[in-house]
Amino acid sequence: MSSEQPSAPSDAAPETRDGDAPAGVITDPKDARLAKVRELLKGRNKGSRAIIIDDEEPLAEALRHGVTVFTVFHGEDTQLPASVTELLPADADVQVVSTHAAKELFGVERRSRIFALARRPKPLTVPELLEGPGDVAVLDGVKLMGNIGAVTRSAKALGFAGLILVDSDLASVTDRRLVRASRGMVFALPLALATADDVVAHLGEVGVPLVSLDPEAREPLSGIAGIQGRIALLLGSEKRGASSRLEQAAERSVRIDIHPDVESLNVSVSAALAMYERRGANPLPAARG
């Protein structure tokens, strides 16, 4: 790799500034090597194919799934973990950033001790997402990154083949907030952005029924376990539910029975319960290694 490993962190280590930094450490937040990071953090050039990936786990997932990483940055007080170094090519560009420079770079945001510049993967279309076997989930009107990220993780963990986001207010499924919220699972699970009309049309073309989670449904959740073939599981926001366009297109609806003193479940909890009921239709692969 192109930089030396930093020394072990010290609880009392002062911030490194110009003049006392080890050779090769970036101490100036305006350093040219950080130019693209600054541009993306400030929201400039929204059409850029470059993205920022924060933290160890999302970066490892990106590398594991073939995302092109241009440069990895880490703090002078942080060692790159084996989960990352084992996946990096021998000639990877690795840069060390001083604590002072990183704080200035990220401003009021939480400072990322490990972050990378990478090429944004090519976005998937709904037809491409539906090419493979297995159930998919459709999130309609869910906008909170924490919820979308949690559903993404559950979908991957429970064997779903993909996730379609409708009316999410996202411009890209590799939005930095979602990469963080999903802990990098956006690189492991096929995701696509779509309109409600697109979802109805493309599911119809491949003959995959839309099955809605609806608290007023007559059929209990257990009913989805016996549905033969693939399904598209429809989930709406906790407050408003799914749109009328998709609810009307649903061929079947099931409910989750909960205590009468509880108004509703968070959408990510409902998704996980429903996905677990479908485990027979979505067998999991053998564990890695």
Automatic annotation (TrEMBL):
Keywords: Methyltransferase, Transferase. Residues 137-276 form the tRNA/rRNA methyltransferase SpoU type domain. GO terms for biological process: response to antibiotic. Signal peptide: none annotated. Residues 25-126 form the Thiostrepton-resistance methylase N-terminal domain. Pfam families: SpoU_methylase (PF00588), TSNR_N (PF04705). Residues 1-29 are annotated as: Disordered. GO terms for molecular function: RNA binding; rRNA methyltransferase activity. InterPro entries: Alpha/beta_knot_MTases (IPR029028), Ribosomal_eL30-like_sf (IPR029064), rRNA_Methyltransferase (IPR051259), SpoU_MeTrfase (IPR001537), Thiostrepton-R_Mease_TSNR_N (IPR006795), tRNA_m1G_MTases_N (IPR029026). This is TrmH family RNA methyltransferase. The lineage of its organism: Bacteria, Bacillati, Actinomycetota, Actinomycetes, Micrococcales.
